[in-house]
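User: Can you predict the 3D structure for this chain?
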Amino acid sequence: MGFGLGKLFAAVTSPGNLLLLLLLAGLLLVWRGSKAGRWLLLTGTVSLALIATTPVSIWVLLPLEERFPAPDLALLEPVDGIVVLGGALMPIGSKEHGMPQLNRDAERLTVLPELMRRFPQAHVVFTGGSGDPRAPDDREAAFVAGLLAGWGADTGQLTLEDSSRNTWENAVNSAAHLAAGQRWLLVTSAAHMPRAMGVFRTVAPDVTVVAFPVSYNANRSEAGRFGLNLSENLDRVEIAAHEWRGLLAYRLAGRIPTVLPAP
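Assistant: Here is the predicted structure, written as structure tokens:
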């Protein structure tokens, strides 16, 4: 599946969009007098109600975020390099407003200055181009050096890779900087870590890649909590659906060894 077609498929099959299409189809069928429309409306309404009032969003996200626990940095030395996956910046907004605009995955970048100070000899690779086929020239990497310099980080140890559009290309385009026998930290969001680790193991099997998960969205303490919060719960379901869909697609394409890579 091509990059643009894959993005279109992801948009159509995202839970929010899928439920909206389901409800619209139900309304159209009801308007035309079809009983099937009632079932579509019922299915869509019940699904939204379950997402809004139950911890199902926590249940589908926790297996991803807890798959790779955070490492004890004191036990890791030496660290030869740190590779940070893009996804923390909004390139279009950053360009429009004249300053870096961070999103909910901002911790992919905010943890970097401290990691760079802790491992001053480590080579740092930030890999992130444009993940939007409608704006291929608006790339994350263009804003990273200035952002890190403003936070006091030494950008002399930083390499920017700005052509990657997805996780597979992140790994392939970073592989030139990874050497056999080295140990690298991999920084990305916790939910994204299983797919990222699987891909880097495929692309660089002779490199020891250590997961450094950040940007958690699910808390185990809330796994039994019921309430009414459609927007936050639906957002978590969207994150989980994106990753589960990506894991399945990457496994079918042979890019990861199993559907859910393990530590």
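The chain is about 50% helix and 10% strand. The beta strands are 81-85, 123-127, 158-161, 183-189, 208-214.
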